[in-house]
Design a protein that fits this description.
Layout: E1 28-33, H1 37-46, E2 56-57, E3 60-65, H2 67-75, E4 80-85, H3 89-96, H4 109-122, E5 127-131, H5 132-136, E6 148-152, E7 164-169, H6 179-192, H7 197-205, E8 207-211, H8 216-224, H9 279-291, E9 295-301, E10 305-308, H10 317-334, E11 337-340, H11 347-354, E12 359-364, H12 372-392, E13 397-403, E14 413-416, E15 435-438, E16 443-450, E17 457-463, E18 469-470, E19 473-475, E20 482-487, E21 495-500, E22 508-515, H13 533-540, E23 550-551, E24 565-567, E25 579-587, E26 593-596, E27 600-603
Parallel strand pairs: 7-8, 7-9, 9-12, 10-11, 13-18, 13-19, 22-23
Antiparallel strand pairs: 1-3, 1-4, 2-3, 5-6, 6-8, 10-12, 13-15, 14-16, 16-17, 20-21, 21-24, 22-25, 25-26, 25-27
The structure holds zinc ion.
Residues 53, 172, 175, 300 line the site of zinc ion.
Length: 604
Amino acid sequence: MLRRFFVVLGCATVLLGQPPSPGGPPSYRVEIASASPDALHAIMESRGYDVSCLAIGPGFVRAVVSVAELAVLEAAGHRVTLVEAAQPMWAKLASRSGGGVVPTGYRDLATINADLATLAATYPGLCQVVDAAAEYGPGATFEGRSITVVKISDNVSIDEDEPEVLFVSAHHCREVVTPEIGVSLAEALLSGYGTDPAITAAVDGQEIWIAPVWNPDGYEYVWTTNNLWRKNRKPSGNGNGDVGVDLNRNYPFGWDYTCGGSTNPGSQTYRGIAAGSEEETQTMVGFLRARHFTKMIDFHSFAEQVRRGYPCAAMPTPVDDISLAEAALLAAASSYVVAPSCCLGGDIHQHMAENTAYTFLPETHTSFQPSYVSALTEIQTNLLPLCMTVLARPVPLTGLVTDATSGAPIAASIDVDGVVWQNGERRRAHLPNGRYNQWLPEGAWSVTVDAPGYAPLTRTVNVAANATTVEHFALGPSGAFELELSTYGWGVGDLLIDLHGIPPGTTEGFTLFSFATTQTVGAGNLFGLQPDFYTLQGLLSPPAPTGLFHWVTPFLPGFFPAAPFSLPAGSLETLSGTSVDGVGIALGPAFGFLGATAPVRITF
Ligand SMILES: [Zn+2]
């Protein structure tokens, strides 16, 4: 049984002004007495204290504090009860078992990865191990670790055109109860395949990805050094010895919104030096963009809630409606309650912005590291039912977008009348299949599908409840010569440059850009551009002698790849908030002018 010790500090019983967090490594889990716990929680969260994912109790606020933070709270006169002091996980489990012997129970990082490898070896047709950091990210974490995930599906070695589903956990490494959910889910899916009809249907019909530990550097640190550690382990480099970024405050979408993470590198909710600055978040962004998950669940602990939504940004009402309805189903399956997301900069918000609206953050259990027996009971009673509900839910509207003549898939934009995204979120069909997914409530929706070079197509689609409506779109050519610039924005700085409807007889060509423009689009005097140093330099650069199109950019002078050309993530980071105008120019033999596209603008 957990030995609790209580220390009463100070004697104030009123809510006092809360000074900013001085930061420092987490040392104690505490309860701070307050007659107005909601108000105190809000103040502490705004001042960088580690309270974000912890429940507010009757007459108190739970927090994890450093030695320095405890001293500040004491000096301010708060009554603080110590619940737990930080210690390595092994010692904690040993003390809980009565001393000395490490009990059978929670798996450390090496054991989790070994168990996943064993599952893949036991079920080779259904389960594959993938290193997400190598496959989708910068290669490894700061300390050089892989991020191990498993893919579970029939024909697992083939990328089938099936809905992709992601279950991830342990962004916050002290939440040791959460990786057990993913490993248990993998075991349940693989052992139940072929005998349990619901499991068999889920595995046959979807590509299921499970990532038990997204913060492996922190997870290792929790087991060896400090079991209350939350962040990753990359030094901040600020000279104060502060270490770590709260990975679930580091995602680009909403990173610098008012409800984003702390700007104090010492805080356990530190958002990082830049949006998407961490290897783990970069890996997840790459993962989201490569797989285009239709459903995504990010497990945390603790609160026994299903969290959802944007806390300080506008979400389209129909999307909010279906998100609430789906959250209620998950809450019913798990006996949890639906609650609003606490902060932006998390992976579920990034997923909402990039892929679909089916994205939830269950705060599981009532503690970071409850007894292992209790963890297993909650997985069986509450969390596997939640996971099976996720897998059983049908995507309301899906289909393929293709070229009406060639049948080739098109990465088209999808707009639904009455669904107004306001924060730069993208809704697209994705290559390689031209597949799109929309989470919409039951009803008749006017859907417009468009892509540069094609004529837009608008159709009314009747979306049914609790079923998948399939609507394919085949687009015909617009005939126009068009330049397409697209980006994920939000400071990540990736840019795709593509041309459509290239005039017949074109043998040479280039794109021309002007940067940081403030004029009306197309109002300049050089192909509609406002000439600047880069556009003039681009005109002076002679086209290469071969190839259909040559790209003139200031990023890689003298480098002219064939279309389409994608600038890598991060290359335009310094241009955040500025606008870039571009035109495409087609030339015939002997550089005869054949035409220019209309100018288009993109804002980073
Ligand atoms: Zn968490």
